[in-house]
Automatic annotation (TrEMBL):
Pfam families registered for this protein in UniProt: HD_5
Taxonomic placement: Bacteria, Bacillati, Actinomycetota, Actinomycetes, Kitasatosporales
Root EC class: hydrolase
Official protein name in the record: HD-GYP domain-containing protein
The EC number(s) this enzyme carries: 3.1.4.-
PANTHER family for this protein: CYCLIC DI-GMP PHOSPHODIESTERASE TM_0186-RELATED, LIPOPROTEIN
InterPro entries cross-referenced by the UniProt entry: Cyclic_di-GMP/3'3'-cGAMP_PDE, HD/PDEase_dom, HD_domain, HD_GYP_dom, HDIG_dom
Ranges of residues in domain HD: 238-360
Keywords: Hydrolase, Membrane, Transmembrane, Transmembrane helix
One Gene Ontology MF term: hydrolase activity
Regions crossing the membrane: 6-26, 33-50, 62-84, 133-153, 165-187, 193-211
Record flagged with keyword Transmembrane: yes
Domain HD-GYP residue range list: 216-411
Length: 425
């Protein structure tokens, strides 16, 4: 329990006491003990596998218990698996209390709405009503407890602790609840518990697939993070610039109504747009004085260097084109190839606006940060020549709606040189 605040320990103790009160009527309740023991063992096994392989919790068995057993017995199903899970003792106690309270609430709601009879003699679609209400109760209790522990243990503001928590968890728990209902119906059918256990097979396979996708996504994020950190270390004046350009690119893409997958790709494009600076000598990136024509030519090679670095990363998709072309201009005066208008990929036109906007609103070695309205006005002035007007207007609308709060990127600001353009190194 070391490192856990006293107030959090007291809160966990209160939750455990509440769970114990839910379990107290158990001796007086007619309970099929063999079913309780089987479900508890099954949940404990699933919990171990889920925690080690999928980094998640497997709720179908718990919800099947809520649909099959009296509330005190259903609450007990969660306790052995939670107490045997990994982690500090107080965390395991908290998990056991939290799940016991949630399952007890789900079982109470299910039985109060006549769900037991609907499961014993399957009555569809009516059986979905008490099951759905039970899932809502289960999700609501988990949400209340999860948010409360954040408020108590970590002093997270209440509004932030619960914001979106219920809606984010409802969809996956609803899927688990449907699987739990299928288990309960089959359990009560002539085919018995063996048939009910077969429901777990497709659920396990689908969860495994989801876990693989999650791991692949995490690997993608780690790859991008490593590249960006390398650029930030090399060019300290633009530290944090890549993440902000990714955020601005995402804002533009959303304002243009792009789908979620493409918005994510454009975020990657913004984050990685300057990765080619790894191939540029550090002395040029950090130079305070004016660049010579030869030095500027060297720096202007960074889009091509970046494209070579990311060309083999298949998941980046059109982000690779943005890395190569984000310094092109609509009038053909950009680099590296002097593309004109629609010849420039749309992703590159998005990142070009995001890049210029953050460059103007952040302190650099060669310029002081401009106010956001001034930067937007400069982008609008250059729209149609340097930048795509659609992208500029999308950013203007998004900033008006959501705001923009750029951080200072230079660790040690130096006197800036006056610059009248939005050209970035």
């Amino acid at each position: 329990m070391e490192g856990i605040p006293v107030r959090a320990r007291v809160y966990v103790a209160c939750a455990a006491l509440g769970a114990l009160l839910c379990l107290l009527p158990l001796p007086a309740v007619r309970t099929p003990w063999w079913a309780l023991a089987l479900l508890a063992a099954l949940y404990a096994g699933c919990e171990q596998i889920a925690r080690r392989r999928f980094a998640g919790t497997f709720y179908p068995v718990l919800l099947a218990g809520a649909f099959l057993l009296p509330p005190p017995a259903a609450a007990l199903v969660a306790v052995p698996g939670a107490l045997l899970s990994q982690g500090a003792g107080v965390r395991r106690l908290w998990r056991a209390a939290q799940l016991a309270l949630a399952v007890w609430a789900a079982a109470r709601v299910h039985w109060a709405l006549g769900g037991r009879d609907a499961v014993v003699a399957p009555d569809f679609p009516y059986a979905l009503l008490p099951a759905g209400a039970a899932v809502l109760a289960f999700c609501l209790v988990l949400t209340v407890l999860d948010g409360s522990i954040l408020v108590v243990a970590e002093r997270v503001p209440a509004r932030r602790a619960w914001r979106g928590l219920f809606l984010r968890s409802l969809a996956p728990i609803a899927v688990h609840g449907l699987a739990g209902l299928m288990m309960a119906v089959l359990w009560r059918s002539p085919y018995g518990p063996v048939a009910a256990l077969l429901v777990l097979l497709p659920m396990g396979v689908s969860w495994w697939v989801f876990a693989q996708v999650h791991r692949e996504r995490a690997a993608h994020q780690a790859t991008i993070r490593a590249l960006v950190q390398a650029v930030d270390i090399k060019d300290g004046y633009t530290r944090g610039h890549s993440e902000r350009v990714g955020q601005a690119s995402m804002m533009i893409a959303r304002e243009l109504g792009m789908d979620a997958e493409r918005v994510e790709v454009l975020r990657f494009a913004g984050i990685l747009h300057d990765v080619g600076k790894l191939g540029v000598p550090t002395r040029l990136l950090r130079k305070d004085g004016p660049l010579t024509p030869e030095e500027r030519r060297i720096i202007e090679l960074h889009p091509e260097y970046g494209h070579e670095m990311v060309r083999g990363i298949s998941f980046l998709g059109e982000a690779r084109g943005a890395v190569l072309h984000h310094h092109e201009r609509l009038d053909g005066s950009g680099y590296p190839y002097g593309l004109v208008g629609a010849q420039i990929p749309e992703s590159a036109r998005v990142v070009a606006v995001a890049d210029a906007f953050d460059a103007m609103t952040s302190n650099r070695s060669y310029s002081r940060a401009r106010p956001v309205p001034v930067a937007l006005a400069e982008l609008e002035r250059c729209a149609g020549t340097h930048f795509d007007p659609r992208m500029v207007q999308a950013l203007v609308r998004s900033v008006a709606r959501h705001g923009w709060h750029p951080a200072v990127t230079a660790e040690a600001p130096r006197p800036p040189r006056p610059r009248s353009t939005v050209v970035q190194r």
